[in-house]
Request: fold
Amino acid sequence: MRGRGIAALMLLALALGPGTSWLNHQDTRWAQAVSAALGTGWAWAVAAVLAGWLVTPRAGGRLRWAALGGAGVLVLAVLGYYASDYAYDRSSSSVSSQQLPPGMPIPDPLATAWADARFWLMGALLTGPALGVLGALTRRNGRTALLAALAVPLLPIAELTMLVHTAAPQTAQDRFGLRVRIVTLALALVWLITVPIVQRAREAKSPRHP
Reply:
């Protein structure tokens, strides 16, 4: 893994973790739109796939680097997300603690953040390597690359379909988030349809060896 690949993974983790936390604390419409898209498991899964794709620039790249990249991006993103959330919670806890009844213990933002982070760190270590390898396989030719490329849009399609059907928006923000998810689902379906076409065109341009 070269320095350029490590820098790309760091930027990806920074945008995914602290970036998502920052968006969650904004009130603008565009921030809510991006947050609605990133606040789902599929976005983090696709980030791990992208990490595996980034660290294996050649079709014959080593899959162990892809596995390490997928897990590394998710671990760094989880740590960055909860570190950012902790900073926001700490700044607001001083205000909220003044509203608590006398004698009631003040909740510890660090303990709460670490309890949640441990769960997602375990998930990152379990799923990150496989997702990274999936991203590396999309660089290869033949049926393996096609199946890997088809699996990537299935991640958002599976989750977003469930969210769209089960969501019950109560506020204007909820309704806006639902529309964002529907648009994202439509884009994922277009991706699923165009993947075989792109794969076929790429294989047609690649040199054939006797």
About this structure: Helices lie at 3-24, 29-38, 41-54, 63-97, 109-137, 143-166, 172-205.
